Amino acid sequence: MITPGLYHILFISTALFFIGMYGFFARKNLITMLMSIELILNSVNLNFIAFNKYLWPGRLDGVFFTIFIIAIAAAEAAVAIAIIINLYRSHKSIDVEQTEEMKY
Known about the structure:
Layout: H1 6-26, H2 30-55, H3 61-91
Helix pairs in contact: 1-2, 2-3
């Protein structure tokens, strides 16, 4: 079995990051934008784990940062879904372009 090196993991993390960036800027649906932000956070988690494994194999700093980011992402997702549900109830749509009333 071939174990992936640091560059392989960083390539996957970079791909996840740019897929998330594309999804965030190209889509107009709030749920898709939220999923794109989660992809970006998961690419950051993958970087923390990869650098922790290859630079400091005996320490768990990257794992602790990853657990902290997962907790923050769960709280962020809960708040964002509550906002999206409230927006859907008031406007009957979750399209970003139809939410211009919230500016004022």
